[in-house]
Write a structure and sequence with these properties.
Layout lengths: L9 H8 L3 E4 L7 E4 L1 H5 L1 H15 L6 E5 L2 H12 L3 E5 L9 E7 L4 E7 L8 E9 L3 H12 L3 E11 L4 H8 L4 E8 L4
Parallel strand pairs: 3-4, 3-7, 7-8, 8-9
Antiparallel strand pairs: 1-2, 5-6
The chain binds adenosine monophosphate (AMP).
The site of adenosine monophosphate has 18 residues, from strand 2, strand 7 and helix 5.
Length: about 190
């Protein structure tokens, strides 16, 4: 239940946490998947999520929001509209129609590739990179590499969920020095 009489902030975040679903052993054994679809299905929860994210970055001069396929599009696109910023998708290989820049990065098992249209980021643009979940940080670092390749300046990263025990924040901060990492909800192992 959402109680309008309680102050926002903690109460709002507690409400959002109640809208996440843990799916054990997806997509492989041992992974506790944070499913955001119940949060998206609840108009109030989706609205609060966007408000809290936008509030954090409003007035900070974000030129471009970069969203990471696929769930980063959902939050990143809506956030870009709220921040009066442009939106740029970073996609899995073979999805973008025009000329692309690409970056390969290591996963726990094997390698992955991300792509962005070559003409996406104006030189010197201040960029906010958005995804739903920060786990080990590999995906966000690869997106940062694409932004920098085109001369963009990474001002911050924003996530709806951060899995604190995987060290993604340290990894991202180390890779993109000087940029901030902000997550709305934090989770410990098994939580
Ligand atoms: P990483 O590169 O390890 O930070 O992984 C981040 C990407 O994988 C994001 O695009 C997430 O959507 C997804 N991801 C990783 N772990 C989880 C998880 N436990 N639940 C949901 N999504 C996850």
């Amino acid at each position: 239940m959402f109680n309008h009489d309680e102050l926002p902030g903690q109460h709002a975040v507690r409400y959002l946490r109640s809208k996440l679903r843990n799916v054990p052993d997806f997509p492989q054994p041992g992974i506790l998947f944070k499913d955001i679809t119940p949060l998206l299905a609840d108009p109030r929860a989706f609205h609060i999520t966007l408000d809290l994210l936008a509030e954090r970055f409003i007035g900070e001069h974000v030129d471009t929001v970069v969203g990471i396929e696929a769930r980063g599009f959902i939050f990143g696109g809506a956030l870009a509209a709220r921040l009066n910023a442009s939106f740029v998708p970073v996609r899995k290989p073979g999805k973008l129609p025009a000329k692309v820049d690409r970056v390969a990065y290591k996963l726990e098992y094997g390698e992955a590739v991300l792509e962005m249209h070559t003409d996406s980021i104006p030189r010197g643009a201040r960029v906010l990179i958005v995804d739903d979940v920060l786990a080990t940080g590999g995906t966000a670092c690869a997106a940062a590499d694409l932004v920098r390749l085109q001369g963009g300046e990474i001002s911050a990263f924003a996530f709806v969920v951060e899995l604190d025990f995987l060290g993604g924040k340290e990894q991202v901060e180390c890779h993109a020095k000087g940029s901030r990492v902000y997550s709305l909800m934090h989770f410990a192992a098994g939580e």
